[in-house]
Amino acid sequence: MSRLSYTAVTKLILKDKINTYSYSKHMAERLVELARKDLPVSIVRPGPIFAAMDEPLPGWSETSSSISKLCKLLLSGGYHTILANRGGKLDATPVDNAVN
Q1: Are 32 and 48 a contacting pair, CB within 8 Å?
Q2: Which residues form the Thioester reductase (TE) domain (predicted)?
Q3: Tens digits of per-residue pLDDT, 49-92?
Q4: How big is the CA angle at 72 (ends 19 and 53), to the nearest 5 degrees?
């Protein structure tokens, strides 16, 4: 029997999930769904998390996630244009809103 490579095992486990974070989030949501008959629960899926709006101060971030980098580059003038929808909305959640 041949040994599966790390990549093959990862693909086998993740299937159509984008990455291990997405996979673990999916698994946690399934567990919550199984337990919901005994618990009052809600599954909330905020958009990508980015820098704070107000707390502890506007723009605060300790991460270098892609959405935070994007916001930093936009606000610092690193990017002069960005492709967006006609309404100009960005599906993202400030970290202080998610925590509160």
Answers
A1: no
A2: 14-100
A3: 777 888 888 877 777 666 667 777 777 787 777 776 777 666 77
A4: 90
